Amino acid sequence: MYSFRNDYSEGAHPKVLKALTETNLEQTQGYGLDPRCQKAADLIRVLCAAPDADVHFLVGGTQANLLTIEALTKPYEAVIAAHTGHIHVHETGAVEATGRKVLTVPSPDGKLTPAMIESVSELHSNEHQVKPAMAYVSNTTETGTVYSKAELTALRQCCDRHGLLLFLDGARLGSALACSDLTLGDYAALTDAFYIGGTKNGALFGEALVLPRPRADFRWYMKRRGAMLAKGRLLGVQFQALLEDGTFLDAARHANGLALRLRDGIAALGYSLPVESPSNQQFPVLPNAVVEGLLAMGYEFEVDHAVDDRHTLIRLVTSWATPEQAVENFLRDLAACTDPR
Amino acid sequence: MYSFRNDYSEGAHPKVLKALTETNLEQTQGYGLDPRCQKAADLIRVLCAAPDADVHFLVGGTQANLLTIEALTKPYEAVIAAHTGHIHVHETGAVEATGRKVLTVPSPDGKLTPAMIESVSELHSNEHQVKPAMAYVSNTTETGTVYSKAELTALRQCCDRHGLLLFLDGARLGSALACSDLTLGDYAALTDAFYIGGTKNGALFGEALVLPRPRADFRWYMKRRGAMLAKGRLLGVQFQALLEDGTFLDAARHANGLALRLRDGIAALGYSLPVESPSNQQFPVLPNAVVEGLLAMGYEFEVDHAVDDRHTLIRLVTSWATPEQAVENFLRDLAACTDPR
Amino acid sequence: MYSFRNDYSEGAHPKVLKALTETNLEQTQGYGLDPRCQKAADLIRVLCAAPDADVHFLVGGTQANLLTIEALTKPYEAVIAAHTGHIHVHETGAVEATGRKVLTVPSPDGKLTPAMIESVSELHSNEHQVKPAMAYVSNTTETGTVYSKAELTALRQCCDRHGLLLFLDGARLGSALACSDLTLGDYAALTDAFYIGGTKNGALFGEALVLPRPRADFRWYMKRRGAMLAKGRLLGVQFQALLEDGTFLDAARHANGLALRLRDGIAALGYSLPVESPSNQQFPVLPNAVVEGLLAMGYEFEVDHAVDDRHTLIRLVTSWATPEQAVENFLRDLAACTDPR
Amino acid sequence: MYSFRNDYSEGAHPKVLKALTETNLEQTQGYGLDPRCQKAADLIRVLCAAPDADVHFLVGGTQANLLTIEALTKPYEAVIAAHTGHIHVHETGAVEATGRKVLTVPSPDGKLTPAMIESVSELHSNEHQVKPAMAYVSNTTETGTVYSKAELTALRQCCDRHGLLLFLDGARLGSALACSDLTLGDYAALTDAFYIGGTKNGALFGEALVLPRPRADFRWYMKRRGAMLAKGRLLGVQFQALLEDGTFLDAARHANGLALRLRDGIAALGYSLPVESPSNQQFPVLPNAVVEGLLAMGYEFEVDHAVDDRHTLIRLVTSWATPEQAVENFLRDLAACTDPR
User: Fold this and answer.
1) Domain C15-246 sits in CATH 3.40.640.10
2) How near does any CA of chain A get to the CA of C122, in Å?
3) Which residues of A touch D74 (CB under 8 A)?
4) For a designed S-S bond to D3, which of A174, B92, B211, D300 qualifies (C-beta 3.0 to 4.6 A apart)?
5) Are C109 and C143 contacting, i.e. CB atoms less than 8 angstroms apart?
């Protein structure tokens, strides 16, 4: 039976594994100062149309989030996020562990809006309060929704008005790139920092952090938090493999496509998916008995929360590795679990 | 030309790469809760004769150091280390970044002794001073030296007398296992925490932290510092491959053997190696002209420091991947650089 | 004209000043280890019927909050508070500066309830999330409301069910003691930590933190955060003066009495006070023109926020030092500002 | 019997107490934004010939040290100090608690020299190490010695060459002002931050931190660490009282004079004072029997450390409050304890 639990349930895209194998015995300098990282960073700068950008390769998303926030803000400053933001909910206080406060606003769909930013900004005005300095958004969001170019541009303008930085968590940027009108160039132009998530889209691990305006001291922050990989070139090799020929986008398209197939198949069975997601995470509401039936068959997925006494919202995630047949089987088995009446 | 710069200049041992490839499309839970990590942890518990030990897989040494110190000490407590200790010199204040102070004692050979611990302990007695709570040692040390079982036992007894924990940084534990009388069982019996360094002995990356007495909350510390790998099973797969059939020890023996060949060949040419090292790091003193000659030929190594106006101490490191021929070539070229008189 | 801005707008109660003057040239040990602090601590233990309690004297409330939370929780743990909680809103991230997260729940009246605690607790279950470890309440609350003994007992029981500590911020404990059914003994019996706020009720400065269960290492936490007063006996002298003969409670009764006189006088003029406060803070809603009129006369008070385009909520605070005449004058002038129609 | 334990064993200079009493019922704004603090800050700017300087009033020295270091350096930066530096030895890791590392150099007399700074600077060159960013000195030092203007100027020039800030801990600045050629103007011209210690020279408590180049955000740092006194004007009142008419300098001269009388009397009895101190701390070496004799009589002082089996180094501290007679009595009793042979 298949696991729709997460997009990091498997290893690496075959192309990535091949590149790691082929370069395995090359001798290089450590800590990301090697030709492989250099080449991958150059490639990213080209793809982002950001010739001056700094690119740093990190192992995971929480690491990328805490480092970016720590390096770009002062101790007494704060980050504004939707209440669903990954840094607020699922990182065990990693941002607070750097001494920074996260200020949250309820968001119906996981997206942050200019109005939300303003509602927080205006409450913080003097030295008895933290000073909002950054807005944090994820694309795709934690609920599968996606920002449009117009929306991200409006956030940028709002941040400029309030002297805020804009940081975009791109743990699932691949999925977003494959289903929105935002390009890598747009992200580089509209944010102060964002990352291209490799872990959830084809890499063994790795997030490529892009800082459109270079900062000489970011590597000090990295090392200080144990976030500098000794064999740093592993990250360069993987991102080069994913980005040099479109594999990254293809992988995300594959995942999104199967997610939409899931969505449509589920809806066709009469179930609701309350949050409209165009990306590789889908959140259907199913009767508890159906959920139990699927689990009993061996399917794996995240049981998010009880909607009412008899219904549960679950999360289904697809990836570059999901076979089409797994999706079809799931829909078939879901139909079988579904009461005919 | 060959690089003797570091033992993490290459990728992974072929056996590790093979295991990663073979398991690539298995679907598992994330974050180290998968069967692969479980199996590797069980194997380590057996090898350590420590059936109750906690085993946590981490990506790198600085991460392992900062987490262990943060999790096992209180905010106002301090760690005692030799002045050469990696946490003091080469981790950009990662321990201080957790709010803990490192108290250092000058050490002629990189080793900590009971007398050194006592000289620090007796200076810290009240609430106006940090409270020493842990001794930190590395094996092999940062200068290539190695603790004997008698020495580590004496440290343990000293720590017990002063109410201190004993933490052993095992970034190069493989090399130490291959050239001292200490076994994995000894480390588990004599320390409160130690790790088996994979990065420098055959893995792509990875340190297996062993906590002989289990701690229910260590995973909270890991996640909070961004140190929980999403595809955690990558670590389990690698450690299983290295440890299940003796590959780990074989790899270290190979590295040590070539290092001793370097040492003997260098000494035979009349050069001194002031620190006696039985492990895979050797520190010869060479005339500046010879150092320049070797660099000009394309050899790579760490130029540690000037001994006097005309001589420099360099570091040569071998690994599981170093070919015997590279060592012989180096010795031949060193002889050629050496003035015949 | 009078300032109703805050209850720390003046110096010390005359009895306190007298005690400081009389003891000025006594020589004592520093840092709170003197006979004056000893005596004050003993007195507090008697008043609290808590013979084993630790008592620590601190200079201010933010200091007391950050230290208590840091000392009583682990790095990955979190504190649950009402969204109005002082630690969340008015301490510039002092709790986050210790690495701890504050989890908030909207509260209509500034009080925390068992249901609110449970709504947060049940969302935090694994190592990807902070672990709620403490509930934080203030008495009186930031909006002037007051917990009853039944309410605090219910919170205690809820905390016990969920393995949480209960910490009570007593910056305005005097005012609460003077208008609720909770005694010092109740606070000691029902909480894991609380403090008796001196700064806002007669002292030059000072908060007496009571830890019903002693903790040997609290002084290390104090010193490490710069919170150990060199001439510590100043705190002991003040608390002894305030507590030994009921001055503390008398001072609070005076403040509360005048606040209620303000409340009744304001209501009699037809203005609303949306939050029902029995304590020394009152929050009337006044027409903007009236607010401007009072400010123009020279009255000082906090302008909290705009209720609508034409009305503003202000805060009036009384203290042990407020003269009855100041209150009568204010009511007279408020009446004069008030449009007769 | 008299206590020579510390210069904060008593309360406040009578002039300070008088000023506090006279202003006790003035109503002012809190948190240091009142006319009293304004006036004291203006006075300090005049005395320092630094019209643009920021002046912040803090309660104690550890607070001043940790805040200045946190506010003026970045997380990965480090502070260079003599191994005797107060921040290294006697503040329970308060600087490390802000995440900053203290790098120490052995100093024979408690002073830092350009050569010491350079020996540390040259060892720290890349992102695997903390980055030295500030030199920390105390005047008077922890051993009673005093910097001359030439010495401080040389430190300034060294700091400029290495891109370092210079921070001077002035917990005993009064004593230094009274026995060296450095003026307040010199301190403002030569350092990036220094403070005028009130606690040890006439105030109840208080350190006036001077930042010659203003920093808009320092008050955020203060509040975040619980270092903003609610009744902030208490600090302004005290510093105005001490500085407006020379009381501060007079108090220090009194203390220094009696310390020199102690020194000369002790030396006349044949005892050595290994560190030459012109200031209010003296460190004689006495036979253990003599030390015990003095303690038995009821004298109080700090027993610093055993010099050998039979001798102990003690510390004697005088203050503005020390009566001349107490010194004469001590010398008489010391003579009596001294074996005639």
Assistant:
1) yes
2) 11
3) 217, 220
4) D300
5) yes
A57 neighbors A235 (Cβ within 8 angstroms): yes
CB within 8 Å: D127 and A219: yes
Q: How far apart are CA C283 and CA B169, in angstroms?
A: 59
How far apart CA D126 and CA C219 sit, in angstroms, is: 37
- Report yes or no: C18 and C26 within 8 Å, Cβ to Cβ: no
Mention every residue, 6+ apart, whose C-beta is less than 8 A from residue C158. Answer: C114, C117, C118, C135, C164
Helix (H) or strand (E) holding C238: helix C233-243
Amino acid letter at C212? Answer: P
Instruction: Decide yes or no: CATH 3.40.640.10 for domain D16-245.
Output: yes
In angstroms, the separation between the Cα of residue D61 and the nearest Cα of chain C is 8
Structural contact between residues B255 and B175, judged by C-beta atoms closer than 8 angstroms? yes
Q: Regarding beta strands D165-169 and D131-138, do their DSSP bridges make them parallel or antiparallel, or are they unpaired?
A: parallel
Contact D277, D262 (CB under 8 A): no
Residues making up chain A, counted from first to last:
341
B54: which chain C residues are within 8 Å (Cβ-Cβ)?
A: none
Most C CBs within 10 Å, among B54, B220, B221, to test the C interface? B220
Mutant choice from D27, D201, D224, D316 vs C, greatest count of C C-beta within 10 A: D27
C49 sits in the region (left: phi over 0; alpha: psi -120 to 50; else beta) called left
Of residues C16, C57, C51, C66, the one with CA closest to residue C33: C57
Find the residue in B nearest to C77 (Cα): B220
- Each of the 341 residues of chain D gets a pLDDT tens digit; together they read 899 999 999 999 999 999 999 999 999 999 999 999 999 999 999 999 999 999 999 999 999 999 999 999 999 999 999 999 999 999 999 999 999 999 999 999 999 999 999 999 988 889 999 999 999 999 999 999 999 999 999 999 999 999 999 999 999 999 999 999 999 999 999 999 999 999 999 999 999 999 999 998 999 999 999 999 999 999 999 999 999 999 999 999 999 999 999 999 999 999 999 999 999 999 999 999 999 999 999 999 999 999 999 999 999 999 999 999 999 999 999 999 997 64
What amino acid is encoded at B142 in this protein?
Answer: E
Nearest by CB: A223 against D127, D219, D220: D127
Across the interface, whether the CB atoms of D62 and C226 are under 8 A apart is answered yes
Q: Contact C25/D10, CB-based, under 8 Å?
A: yes
Question: Chain C residue closest to D323 (CA)?
Answer: C25
Q: How far is A262 from chain C (nearest CA, A)?
A: 27
Residues in chain D with CB shorter than 8 Å from the CB of C227 are 63, 226
Residue C326 tokens read as 């100041």
CA-based nearest residue to C307, from C279, C281, C285: C285
Question: Domain locations in chain C?
Answer: 15-246, 248-337
CA distance C148 to B219: 39
CATH homologous superfamily, domain D248-337: Aspartate Aminotransferase, domain 1 (3.90.1150.10)
> Residues near C46 by Cβ (< 8 Å), separated by ≥ 6?
none
- Report which DSSP code applies to C41: H
ipTM of the complex: 0.97
Element (H, E) at D150: helix D149-161
Fold of B15-245: Aspartate Aminotransferase; domain 2 (3.40.640)
